[in-house]
Specification:
InterPro entries: Thioredoxin-like_sf (IPR036249), TPR-like_helical_dom_sf (IPR011990). The protein is mainly alpha-helical and 150 residues long. It has a single domain, classed as Tetratricopeptide repeat domain (Serine Threonine Protein Phosphatase 5, Tetratricopeptide repeat, Alpha Horseshoe), CATH 1.25.40.10. Helices cover 54% and strands 7% of the residues. The chain has a two-stranded antiparallel ribbon with strand order 1-2. α1 (9-18) packs parallel to α3 (62-79) and α5 runs antiparallel to α6. The radius of gyration is 16 Å and the shape is globular. The chain starts with 8 loop residues before the first helix and ends in a 6-residue tail after the last helix. 31% of the residues are buried.
């Protein structure tokens, strides 16, 4: 990632606008133990209190790193029950990165957030239908399977 992904201007701009990046070696104790880092690159999205919301292990291209980071931000808001802000990040992934490997999870969580905001189950079923159509083999399609009955 050092030679390909991180030098990409889109990646630099996104990270500088949304994160305080910290780089540590995967074997740098005690942080590597505290965050259970076993391989490199491991990218962990933490909130301002140090709570983990998203993690990736292994190489990501710039086309995949940015949606992954978007997902981490959205999950941070989701887990803090800041649902309207979470929804913005999930929708952004779905619209801007429709073919990303991270889009199925964003679609799933988008449906969950919309349900939680409205108490209307329709977004859950729509999420399942979108996942079935666009990502039939995704684990997130399988997780949304019960929503087909709504």
């Amino acid at each position: 990632m050092e030679a390909v992904t991180f030098p990409d201007n889109k990646v630099v701009e996104f990270i500088e606008s949304n994160f305080i990046p910290v780089r540590i070696a995967f074997d740098a104790k005690p942080l590597s133990e505290e965050f259970n880092v076993k391989w490199t690159p491991t990218i962990i999205t933490l909130d301002d209190s140090g709570k983990e919301h998203h993690r990736t292990v292994g190489f990501l291209s710039s086309e995949e790193l940015i949606p992954s980071l978007n997902l981490g931000i959205g999950k941070g808001y989701f887990e803090k029950d800041e649902l309207k802000e979470a929804l913005k990040w999930f929708e952004h992934i779905v619209i801007q990165y429709p073919k990303s490997d991270f889009t199925p999870e964003a679609l799933f969580l988008k449906g969950v957030v919309q349900y939680k905001l409205t108490q209307d189950p329709k977004p859950l079923k729509e999420a399942y239908e979108d996942l079935t159509k666009n990502f039939p083999d995704s684990e997130w399609t399988k997780r949304a399977y019960p929503y087909r009955l709504l």
